[in-house]
Task: structure prediction
Amino acid sequence: MKLVVLLIYFAVMIGIGLYCRKHATDVNGFVLGGRSVGPWLTAFAYGTSYFSAVVFVGYAGQFGWKYGIAATWAGIGNAFIGSLLAWVVLGRRTRIMTQHLDSATMPQFFGQRYESRPLKIFASVIIFIFLIPYTASLYNGLSRLFGMAFNIDYSVCIILMAVLTAVYVIAGGYMATAINDFIQGIIMLFGIVTVIGAVLKSNGGFLAALDGLGQISDETVSSTPGIFASFFGPDPLNLLFVVILTSLGTWGLPQMVQKFYAIKDEDSIHKGTVISTFFALVVAGGCYFLGGFGRLFSDQVDVVANGYDSVIPTMLQSLSPMLIALVVILVLSASMSTLSSLVIASSSTLTIDFLKDNFVKDMDEKHQVLTIRVLVVVFIAISAVIALIQYKSAVTFIAQLMGISWGALAGAFLAPFLYSLYWKGTTKISCWVCFIFGSVLMIVDMLVPAILPEIMRSPINCGAIAMLAGLVIVPVVSLVTPKPDKQLVDETFACYEKDTVVPQKTALGK
Result:
């Protein structure tokens, strides 16, 4: 039954990819779906790119074990900061200015906004370097689940996931990814609610599970009774850093922001904001809420020997075969949707911002699309090889690179992108400083963390601090460096002042 469900799922994904071929004939169509993607597809594409197996298996297990039921705050933050506020603050302005500047990627946006090819190239290099380990980490959460559900080698799972994702992305581009994300999102919504219900039922219901959690103590963490069932958990400060990194971080991730480039119209922004927030509240809130009960299974989990990734699979192993099949499809969906989003962001950035005009002069539309498709294969192959190496050699640091990648990308791009949309005084030099600060800080945290203050030695904390520091660095550097060219800035911001006729129900006349 589990194999039949998987085969049906694979067939649907490939069928959608082939169906969407007509939308992927030029760069605009392949990378942005022709900027005509409606609210449901955009919102689900945003949400499914946000949450992957890393969140469901890795982060939910790790932070649920560390903070108990208080880990749910991370999911709430993902919904209201990472989704609702991101759509409200970035959605409309990103769509308007990127279309005005005719930019399809984040580096291209920076290059056009500041008329700087070096800035564009450096941004594309940062994305290329830090998206690869992030992409490889997506396979990590699947290994234990496939080992629990199927008697097949995990290598087969990695290859299947890589091949299937490559087929539908290459065939249909962004539109195929968006439609598949919608289907995968439905599976994730239904799956997480069902799994939470089953796990709580196996522990006597919500109140009984919460009571059981309140009776668990761990002197190495806290001497306070019932700390794992408390409102803020045993370590509120580090929990706050988790909320900041996983919520505010989406504002600076290229594969997330790029979703706003493709929005169809104003109505899509309003509806997409609501849908995306609801999706994040259910999926992210549900994942961390589920992980919060991990210590109820402490007699079956050996975190020291098997790591935090063993927490969620242990919680699920007693479920019925059909529910386990649903969980496998849920996590596979979460990983594939994020993987497809990442490889489109990586391949389009490398083609449009790095190869085109710099190494291949006058590359036409046809060759750009072909190059993007080839690079999709390359990126997926590299990520699969890294995941296989990690699996075969038990290399653990690759899994930790996901936090480094997220922190470096958001630390480098969040503040420059946000200020570039809103403030005419943002300077090119401030972008350079923030790019270098965010990426170098996270590299230092990875290679020589001992030289940093103790609170910054965790990639989670360091990434959150990098993002917050960028919000200060950009305005301060902009105020003490030469002002940008007034004519260039006025022409760029003129797109916001353009008159648009709307129905009276949207805005009252004079």
Summary: The two ends are 63 Å apart (CA to CA).
